[in-house]
Write a structure and sequence with these properties.
307 residues; nine-stranded mixed β-sheet; Rossmann fold
């Protein structure tokens, strides 16, 4: 059996590590394997949920500082001790900034009208990839995980993070480092079934008064690009559900309505983002293998190939 080493997860903003790959990170850490999260921006342009923290929206430096603290709490919940911002180690004061986005409807995001001067999407791929390659050389991971080519739902920073990650993997190949690359994904059929289950009475009961201002996703509508027909790898979420939901709650400016749900097939939790659309937590967190071998994942309980 091949030994299993470290994992590096590359994400665009604080909260993405939890929403996209939280179960994998918690499972990997619980198995005693090294886990590193690299965050490309501090989420300066994120929308803010709730009146208590509304004053942070539009104040980039203040929101960035607050989201750094949220990220630290979320990583602690997941059991992740190693974190780096992608712009660390650059010129003093230089930051890769959240590029922002515009909701296009049907759960998709597009490019914002006004981009900051140092927007992450404007950073040349090779420049950002060189920074990430340094992280990979230092950690020597067996596994690198990020988004699929469309970034899950089209967010420009997610798409750029995907491109940067894939280029960084190319760069470290020259140093004979060849990690297995995973892209976060979910089966479309499972998403549609979970969307339907969100309309059930148990969800309404769990949310209480908070259910009233949340919209249900359309189970027959367009799916985000994270949806695929087949998966290569599955991570069982239930054993680490408490850790993942705690990490979601830590991102209070971005996530609300976090609940554990039991007794409904294909649905073990729910949450909502700033678009106020209820989203499911599925029993399985899925991945496609973009490069490398699945056998390097052997030995981590709860992580299994999909036949």
């Amino acid at each position: 059996m091949a030994p299993v080493g470290g994992l590096v997860a590359v994400h665009a903003h604080p909260d993405d590590e939890t929403l996209s790959t939280g179960a994998l990170l918690a499972t990997w850490a619980r198995a005693g394997r090294p886990v590193t999260v690299v965050t490309c921006t501090r989420g300066e342009r994120g929308e803010v949920i709730g009146e208590a923290l509304a004053h942070l929206e539009g104040d980039g430096p203040a929101l960035a500082a607050h989201r750094e603290s949220e990220l630290a709490a979320a990583l602690s919940s997941l059991g992740v001790a190693d974190h780096a911002f992608l712009d660390s180690g650059g010129p003093a004061g230089e930051r890769f900034e959240d590029s922002g986005m515009a909701w296009l409807g049907t759960g998709r995001a597009g490019t914002a009208v006004d981009l900051p001067d140092r927007a992450f999407v404007g950073v040349p791929v090779d420049e950002a990839a060189a920074r990430l390659a340094d992280v990979l050389r230092a950690r020597q991971p067996d596994v690198v995980v990020t988004y699929e080519p469309d970034g899950g739902y089209g967010h420009p920073d997610h798409v750029h993070a995907h491109r940067v990650t894939m280029r960084a993997v190319e760069l470290v190949a020259a140093d004979d480092l060849h990690p297995t690359v995973l892209w976060a994904a979910q089966r479309g059929a499972h998403l549609r079934a979970a969307y339907r289950a969100l309309a059930g009475g148990s969800v309404t009961l769990a949310l209480g008064d908070e259910r009233g201002d949340l919209t249900l996703p359309d189970p027959d509508g367009p799916l985000p690009s994270v949806a695929v027909d087949t998966l290569d790898l599955a991570v069982d979420v239930l054993p680490v559900r408490a850790a993942v939901l705690d990490a979601m709650r830590a991102h209070a400016t971005q996530v609300r309505g976090v609940r554990a749900l039991d007794g409904t097939p294909g649905l073990i939790g729910c949450y909502a983002l700033s678009n106020d659309v209820l989203a499911p937590v599925l029993p399985v967190e899925g991945y496609r293998v973009a490069a490398g071998r699945v056998d390097v994942l052997a030995g981590v309980p709860g992580v299994r190939p999909v036949a």
